[in-house]
Amino acid sequence: MTTTPHLQTFTLEHLPPGYVMHVAVYENVRNAGFLQKQLLDGNEGFEYAFVDAGVVLSTTHLLAAIYRALRDFQSGRMKSRNVHSEVVFSLSSNNNISESFRRFGITPSTTNLIVVKISLPSKQVSRDEVLKHLTEVIEGESVDFCDEVLGGMVDEKRVRKVYKLGGGKSGIVQSKGEGEKRELEVLVLGGMALRGFGG
Amino acid sequence: MSVQAPPAAIPTPSHIEPPNPSHPASTSPLPLPPIFQHDPAPPQLITQGAEALLYRTTYLLPSIQCALKYRPSKPYRHPILGARLTKHRILSEARVLAKCRKEGVPVPAVYGLDEREGWLMIEWIAGEVLRIKLNEWLKQRKDEKVPEERENAPDGGRIHEGLHVLKGLMGRIGSAVGRMHGVGIVHGDLTTSNLMLRPRSNDTAEGGAGDGDGILDGEVILIDFGLASQSTADEDRAVDLYVLERAFGSTHPRAEGMFSELLAAYGKSFKGANIVLKKLEDVRMRGRKRSMLG
Amino acid sequence: MISIGLEGSANKLGIGIISHPAPGKPALILSNLRHTFNAPPGEGFLPKDTAKHHRSWVVKLVKQAMAEAKVSITDIDCICYTKGPGMGAPLQSVAVAARMLSLLWQKELVGVNHCVGHIEMGREITGAQNPVVLYVSGGNTQVIAYAEQRYRIFGEALDIAVGNCLDRFARTLEISNDPAPGYNIEQLAKKGKVLLDLPYAVKGMDCSFSGILASIEILAAELKKNPEWRDPITGEVITTADLCFSLQETVYAMLVEITERAMAHVGSHQVLIVGGVGCNERLQKMMGLMAKDRGGSVFATDERFCIDNGIMIAHAGLLAYKTGFRTALEESTCTQRFRTDEVFVKWRD
């Protein structure tokens, strides 16, 4: 049933050359517990950002976290172990690192998973290497990294809860449909940008 | 003895260029924020404000437009004072925008920031600042005298209609400002340059009453929160209105008469707005007394 | 045409005589005399004493100005005096003198707004055509730009004037009032190095100084109690000079900022500084750096013109006189409150 696995490769605006992102999405993941254990054990072969797709609204949402992580990496302001853990932490709107892993990172119950691998100028990783390794270790179906797929995986209620955006007066309640989704997204982006500044 | 320029004075050019704030005479090159140092093409400078440069650029991907507000360090300011102000203002502006947006006040969303490098990345707002729109509109009516004078004239139909459009706009501004005050934010620099008119995607929304030209149509978006703060003090709110009133008076003297429309809409916009309007009268009185010796 | 100007809105009595030779030609200053009433250190000048000073000097100064200008009574076209704003008693004493001259010489009176006097003289001296004006003195802090026959106030101090803030701090430190408290603060500030944290109070194009004054006075009191006080960052001993330095750096940064905001708002590249505080070289330098960044330039005058003087009253008065403006004897009052934007500027386009 498996066709060619999807792996999207990006560069982001306003970053120096040499920073390349590889992003893959998997559904029906069956070995999340194993993957999480590799992270907890500090298995160097598993230096990825494993993000639970249930809390990611859109491609923009994830890329924003990667961007924040890379800027903090560049300016020596990272708070966590490495740039990959920093991506997960960058999804958070507060400064609690372990909480951010519980909320945004992989857990044994994760079924829809986003995987990010960052190739740094000092530590380059090729697309093929990533693809090969992921195909070997992840038990799940590779799908496209796009808004349509993410939109089907996200639990907006959960997003609202983790970003504390349930408030009654909020603008997101007033707008409808796509407008509402967009409004939720920009509020999330604002919360992430202000993390650590008492936003 | 003839009057001669003392040494401190610098000779003046014989002719003054017309106002054109978006194209400053660039004798000294503008500082580029460090974030752009790797970009293949220089970003587009939109305006050189007093404290900040506004660039049109991209967020994450080439397809996502954004505005980048950069506060370069000021050569006249002591570096310690400058760093303190820059950090404070970047963070304060970001916090205020995020709060406003969360509470449904029409402002640009926050995308990113770096308080040490002095920049804030925000949502790109299409449209034009009110100052330009209003001047364009007033200019079109310059030959038609001040609207109030002709309101009852037999041929004043078109003017009357025009007046209605201006009144509608003033009302929308009043509501937007009131909404902001209602959520506990004061702007600190309300001028007609810090209000935008964003074109609506469809004409069904509020305020789109057409007198044909549609110059004053659009959604009012509040921008430039560089001097904003969180406050629910009536005094601060009243000063906000006073600053805006004076901005109308000094920049668009011909539209000043319509300010009461703005205040009327403001009065209905949140609980306690009428107390602010009372306070505004005090602030105005103080303003007039201010020319005496301290 | 020739006019004589009498100024006495604060502690300076100024008499000036100016000639406007022909349209398009620069004005000629025939004489410009000033006598200042200085209070002892630690004190401000009181209206009553200041008025007395003006009354006792005005005749002498007028006579001297006429002699220096080498003009006779018949050469004078009009008598210009400061109508306001300013301190009541000194204004009145000079208005009385102007009325006396008007009756004695059979010349018409022209009441002049003090702020407009500063602006017009600044424009004449520097050649700045249409600048944003920062008017800073002991009694006024205004950012002004011309539009449609008025000098419109874009920003101003919401409480005390910047000069008043400096003067009062000079009193706290018991710095001499001679030649001016602000001048002596400036000299002390040149020796300052440590920048102390003071409130920075800008609201749009407005600003306020009372909070800064309160803060710097607290710091001064602390310094008095603890002369060994050191800057926590640099370890340097903090001195009175550092207080003056910090005060100047903060309040002038605020003034430059509100001026720049007004320039951005009206799209002007020129700035003119007038008023007594405008003599401050640090302020002029900071303003110059700002203007340069905006591709513009700063215009400032020296102490002959930025400190209150009679020639500016003669000049602005004559501009009005030439457009037909007169102040009838029975209307030749003065007023403590007289906003810059109340004057109809008929002589400009």
TrEMBL record, chain A:
<comment type="similarity">
    <text>Belongs to the CGI121/TPRKB family.</text>
</comment>
<dbReference type="GO" id="GO:0005634">
    <property type="term" value="C:nucleus"/>
</dbReference>
<keyword id="KW-0539">Nucleus</keyword>
<dbReference type="Pfam" id="PF08617">
    <property type="entry name" value="CGI-121"/>
</dbReference>
<comment type="function">
    <text>Component of the EKC/KEOPS complex that is required for the formation of a threonylcarbamoyl group on adenosine at position 37 (t(6)A37) in tRNAs that read codons beginning with adenine. The complex is probably involved in the transfer of the threonylcarbamoyl moiety of threonylcarbamoyl-AMP (TC-AMP) to the N6 group of A37. CGI121 acts as an allosteric effector that regulates the t(6)A activity of the complex. The EKC/KEOPS complex also promotes both telomere uncapping and telomere elongation. The complex is required for efficient recruitment of transcriptional coactivators.</text>
</comment>
<protein>
    <recommendedName>
        <fullName>EKC/KEOPS complex subunit CGI121</fullName>
    </recommendedName>
</protein>
<dbReference type="GO" id="GO:0002949">
    <property type="term" value="P:tRNA threonylcarbamoyladenosine modification"/>
</dbReference>
<dbReference type="InterPro" id="IPR013926">
    <property type="entry name" value="CGI121/TPRKB"/>
</dbReference>
<dbReference type="InterPro" id="IPR036504">
    <property type="entry name" value="CGI121/TPRKB_sf"/>
</dbReference>
<dbReference type="GO" id="GO:0000408">
    <property type="term" value="C:EKC/KEOPS complex"/>
</dbReference>
<keyword id="KW-0819">tRNA processing</keyword>
<dbReference type="GO" id="GO:0005829">
    <property type="term" value="C:cytosol"/>
</dbReference>
TrEMBL record, chain B:
<dbReference type="GO" id="GO:0000781">
    <property type="term" value="C:chromosome, telomeric region"/>
</dbReference>
<comment type="subunit">
    <text>Component of the EKC/KEOPS complex composed of at least BUD32, CGI121, GON7, KAE1 and PCC1; the whole complex dimerizes.</text>
</comment>
<keyword id="KW-0808">Transferase</keyword>
<feature type="domain" description="Protein kinase">
    <location>
        <begin position="40"/>
        <end position="294"/>
    </location>
</feature>
<keyword id="KW-0158">Chromosome</keyword>
<protein>
    <recommendedName>
        <fullName>EKC/KEOPS complex subunit BUD32</fullName>
        <ecNumber>2.7.11.1</ecNumber>
    </recommendedName>
</protein>
<keyword id="KW-0597">Phosphoprotein</keyword>
<comment type="similarity">
    <text>Belongs to the protein kinase superfamily. BUD32 family.</text>
</comment>
<dbReference type="GO" id="GO:0005524">
    <property type="term" value="F:ATP binding"/>
</dbReference>
<dbReference type="InterPro" id="IPR022495">
    <property type="entry name" value="Bud32"/>
</dbReference>
<keyword id="KW-0779">Telomere</keyword>
<comment type="function">
    <text>Component of the EKC/KEOPS complex that is required for the formation of a threonylcarbamoyl group on adenosine at position 37 (t(6)A37) in tRNAs that read codons beginning with adenine. The complex is probably involved in the transfer of the threonylcarbamoyl moiety of threonylcarbamoyl-AMP (TC-AMP) to the N6 group of A37. BUD32 has ATPase activity in the context of the EKC/KEOPS complex and likely plays a supporting role to the catalytic subunit KAE1. The EKC/KEOPS complex also promotes both telomere uncapping and telomere elongation.</text>
</comment>
<dbReference type="GO" id="GO:0008033">
    <property type="term" value="P:tRNA processing"/>
</dbReference>
<dbReference type="GO" id="GO:0070525">
    <property type="term" value="P:tRNA threonylcarbamoyladenosine metabolic process"/>
</dbReference>
<keyword id="KW-0067">ATP-binding</keyword>
UniProtKB/TrEMBL annotation, chain C:
<keyword id="KW-0479">Metal-binding</keyword>
<feature type="binding site">
    <location>
        <position position="182"/>
    </location>
    <ligand>
        <name>substrate</name>
    </ligand>
</feature>
<dbReference type="GO" id="GO:0046872">
    <property type="term" value="F:metal ion binding"/>
</dbReference>
<keyword id="KW-0539">Nucleus</keyword>
<feature type="binding site">
    <location>
        <position position="280"/>
    </location>
    <ligand>
        <name>substrate</name>
    </ligand>
</feature>
<comment type="similarity">
    <text>Belongs to the KAE1 / TsaD family.</text>
</comment>
<dbReference type="Pfam" id="PF00814">
    <property type="entry name" value="TsaD"/>
</dbReference>
<keyword id="KW-0963">Cytoplasm</keyword>
<dbReference type="InterPro" id="IPR043129">
    <property type="entry name" value="ATPase_NBD"/>
</dbReference>
<feature type="binding site">
    <location>
        <position position="167"/>
    </location>
    <ligand>
        <name>substrate</name>
    </ligand>
</feature>
<keyword id="KW-0819">tRNA processing</keyword>
<feature type="binding site">
    <location>
        <position position="114"/>
    </location>
    <ligand>
        <name>a divalent metal cation</name>
    </ligand>
</feature>
<feature type="binding site">
    <location>
        <begin position="135"/>
        <end position="139"/>
    </location>
    <ligand>
        <name>substrate</name>
    </ligand>
</feature>
<dbReference type="InterPro" id="IPR017861">
    <property type="entry name" value="KAE1/TsaD"/>
</dbReference>
<dbReference type="InterPro" id="IPR000905">
    <property type="entry name" value="Gcp-like_dom"/>
</dbReference>
